[in-house]
Amino acid sequence: METIIRTEKITKKFNNNETVLKGIDLSFYLNSFNAIIGASGSGKSTLLNIIAGLLRPTSGKVFYQDLEVTSFSDTQLSKFKKYKISTVFQNYLLLPNLTVAENIRIGISESNKALPFSEITEMLGIDDILSKFPSQLSGGQQQRVSIARAIIKNPKILFCDEATGALDEENSIRVLKLLHLIKKHYGITIIFVTHNLKIADTAERIITMKDGIVHNDMWNENPISADEIKWGVNVDHSRE
Ligand SMILES: Nc1ncnc2c1ncn2[C@@H]1O[C@H](COP(=O)(O)OP(=O)(O)OP(=O)(O)O)[C@@H](O)[C@H]1O
Hints:
By secondary structure, the protein is of the alpha/beta class. 29% of the residues lie in helices and 27% in strands. The protein is built from 7 helices and 10 strands. It has helices at 44-51, 74-83, 100-109, 117-123, 139-151, 169-186, 197-200, and strands at residues 3-13, 19-29, 33-38, 59-64, 67-68, 85-89, 157-161, 189-193, 205-210, 213-219. Strands 6-7-8-3-9-10 form a 6-stranded mixed beta sheet, with helices on both faces. A hairpin with a 2-residue loop joins strand 4 (59-64) and strand 5 (67-68). Helix 3 (100-109) packs parallel to helix 5 and helix 5 packs parallel to helix 6. It is globular, with a radius of gyration of 17 Å. The chain binds adenosine-5'-triphosphate (ATP). Adenosine-5'-triphosphate binds at residues 14, 16, 18, 20, 38, 40-46, 195, 238.
């Protein structure tokens, strides 16, 4: 398995002196679907943001292939964020004054090898809403547009932080199925932070954070398909 990105002894302390990450060593492999779970406050989003180059660690290193991201200059870091990775968050972050098509084209402008526009919009089921504005769309549609914008630039890694967090079950499943399809079709490595253990069960690897450390890291021998998710009453890990 080829490593695409890895961390070495990552720590993070915020101004209030709380040590949120206490030495994280993780390697992520090319073309893999990884879920990061754990109770609220365990450090999942902080870790994701550090690996994605959105936040600097207090100590430790992040390597993208053989390049040390944590020693990049601001220019190198912005190139890394522009060309190598993409992010999808719970709030879709679409530009309200641009149409769906224009929002997606922002992704193309961040790429020198964009994927075919109509292939992506058809795959995500948004080819019939291209001239609409975000305010005219449902949450599920907006999230599919934000995924289209994120992947059309053909990133090596897609970071998702609670990407289905604001969606109902039907739309969560649809988005999740699309993310698995994208991984398979384009070989994009997916790192997905979630509270939802059912969603994590579809991943090939499940990493559990607890109090700033990796509490468990396991390969999921029998990932379930998104179609098979049985939504239970309590899928919120934060309450455990
Ligand atoms: N910018 C910040 N300044 C100060 N403390 C922060 C900051 N960001 C996060 N924290 C703290 O770091 C800890 C971990 O936060 P983080 O968001 O990484 O956890 P999480 O596991 O993703 O939680 P959740 O599932 O609720 O999103 C929390 O105690 C949080 O209050």
